[in-house]
Amino acid sequence: MAVNLAPPGALTPVAGVRLAAAAAGVRKPGRDDVVLLELATGSQVAAVFTQNAFCAAPVTVARRHLAATAPRYLLINAGNANAGTGDAGLTAALACCEALARDGGCAAEAVLPFSTGVIGEPLPVERITAVLPALHGALAADGWGAAAQAIMTTDTVAKGHSVRVDTAQGSIHVTGIAKGSGMIHPNMATMLAFVATDAALPAALLDACLRRAVAGSFNRITVDGDTSTNDACVLMATGKGPVTIAALDTPAGQALQQAVDAVCRTLAQAIVRDGEGATKFISVRVTGGRDADECRAVAYAIARSPLVKTAFFASDPNWGRLLAAVGYAGVPALDIDRVGVHLGEVCIVRDGARAPDYTEARGQAVMARDEIPVTVALGRGDAEATVWTCDFSYDYVRINAEYRT
Fold first, then answer.
1. Is 190 an annotated catalytic residue?
2. Would the pTM of this model clear 0.90, i.e. be above it?
3. Does domain 17-271 have CATH number 3.40.50.410?
4. Helix (H) or strand (E) holding 79
């Protein structure tokens, strides 16, 4: 039921990255659910992880390993989150890393584990380690598409995107995949995403590039307001292309940032378009704030409101719900007489009240669309921010009610 979202076409290989997928029966038999990603020696890796205090065992292990040494492998499983599993979960995540390290001839710290799926169930280590030989044998530069399929849980469409930008030194390639459909709300991160480039740049610049990209993409989406226990976003730079970046404010650095931004933004919006049960894709743009923080606060108040989201599902231009969300967003000393609201091109609120020329029929026409822009003008400054969300449908309740059955 994804909103105007098709599976990605052929994803561009990134020199220095090979991937493979295999079926381990982690939760359900008959589908690929484990991914191995191999990085060329000398690659740099940056990552951001969930801020949920109840973070999953693989998040804890990946953080430690990333701080200890340069990663050589990423090991990703779908179907089991290995979260809420205590010391046994940490032992299980480490056991997977150690088994892969033995096969790959590296230290266990050079393996970053990632998991997604049901919380609170023991990780079936033996099933995962049993497919490691097959994964090693299947590693290929063009494995991005299979990997995108294998990491899905309640997703209905695989998510991937590639960008190439040209610089004076040569071309930069960036390819990324992501999974996410429910339990989506930013507190970095809000899903799993893996992005790679063939550019060469120091670890500090790579980290800065990732954080800038995340701020304008994965940290601007919400499906249901729930921050997951397992979220992570990883940016890898193999240095196997012709471009070396010494600073992000150079022409080559700006080109890389734009490419990573574009990939992350496309993946983030794909997650919202594939939100569980979604029928509408909604952009909430808030302008005229004193700073970006208050604009984001208003945008998220609207984007995560169940009353607003159910009205979108019903195609009901119940604009009072929008005003209520603006009012409780916590903007200090908000002058409501200066607030304006548009649904698409239709002004529904002007100077804090219903616009004199607004009609229900015009609002209904916009709400009937499957892509709806909402604009809120606060009238108190020059800052602005945009958040992307979706509606709440009957299917959202069904999908989550039946998630473990």
1. yes
2. yes
3. no
4. strand 73-80
